[in-house]
Amino acid sequence: MSEKAKIRLEYPINCSPKVLFNRLSTASGLAEWFADDVRVKGNLYTFVWEGSEQQAEKTLQKDDRMVRFNWVDEEDSYFEFRITKDELTGDVSLIVIDCSDEDEAEETSGLWNSQIADLKHILGC
Length: 125
Fold this sequence. Notes:
The chain is an alpha+beta fold. The chain has helices at 17-25, 27-33, 105-123; strands spanning 4-13, 37-41, 44-49, 52-62, 66-71, 78-85, 92-101.
């Protein structure tokens, strides 16, 4: 079994933190770009991709700033979205933090790049 690596990716996003947060923290928002379908029961999110399901529990949330999901079937494995806004320029960035196997880090980064491109397209930025 390989070691977990924490991957941190940052993307400039041209929209308000409130609009972006809705796409990162709600079932309907996540279903627009992250998964084919998302179902929620309490804090348990079921993500559906091409017929297969994976469950994550929303364990942290700070409105308009961050949300973290811990995978139910993988110990110490999570993904997190953080929204930052530069005080001087007002530029908004999305920071994605993901835990993946070290030997899959490059593939994981590529997957996030593709997913965030879809998110930006939906947001119109």
